Amino acid sequence: MSGSEFLNVSLPKGRLGETVLNMFCRAGLGADAERGDRRLIFENEDAGIRFFWVKPSDVTVYVERGAADIGVAGSDIIDEYSPDVYELLDLGMGKCRMCVAAPEGGTVNKNLRGRLTVATKFPETAVRYYRGLGRDIDIVKLNGSVEIAPLAGLSDVIVDIVETGTTLRENGLVVTETISAISARLIANKSSMKFKRERILAVTELLRGYCGD
Ligand code: PRP
After folding, report:
1. What is the rounded CA–CA span in Å between residue 201 and residue 206?
2. pLDDT one-digit tens code per residue, 17-53
3. Which of 3, 60, 90, 121 is buried most deeply by CB count within 10 Å?
4. Using an 8 Å Cβ cutoff, are 159 and 99 in contact?
5. Is the dihedral of CA 120, 123, 125, 130 positive or negative?
6. Whose CA is nearest to atom 22 of ligand 1?
7. Which protein residues are within 6 Å of ligand 1, measured from CB?
8. What is the CA(167)–ligand 1 centre distance, in A?
């Protein structure tokens, strides 16, 4: 099968990606390649499907630029980067929340007049949220372990993903506001939706039967 006949799928490396790959397998679309190795591209030639195992925040880049026809990305990533793609399906998995959190017992978030310093991996999301509240903020863009920021005096609050709440709890932080609910979405490249439309819609329908499992 030549490269263009394959359906190229970008999946987020990590726990969500493993769950999604399992969903593709149950739908008969999985790759037969061993997943115990460090290979980042693997394919199921019979099914004509090839997977790219990429950083979660890069899935939308592959799909938007057409390197992948479809992909699975969290709605947190879609909201942050606003990629020019089609959203086909809410997979009902990878559920979590985008929240504002602050040190427990702190008063910082109650002072609505002060300029708030917000540490986050999601600056666009945070700016949009506070703009909606009419609140003036300073963004500190971080790449991970955001919970440390208010504890180290780098920020007043954080805007981050909360799944089980364990990371917040173990670091003495509490949720003060919920910004949005998050779940994994199947997305598609816009021109792939013209040229591989039947194929993509067939995969979407197959996956629909496994949503939320
Ligand atoms: C995410 C998120 C929180 C944590 C939330 O971080 O940014 O830190 O998971 O999960 P919990 O509510 O179940 O504790 P991730 O594991 O991606 O690591 P990072 O902070 O290095 O980005």
Report:
1. 9
2. 989 998 998 888 876 655 666 788 888 888 889 999 9
3. 60
4. yes
5. positive
6. 144
7. 144-147, 160-167
8. 7
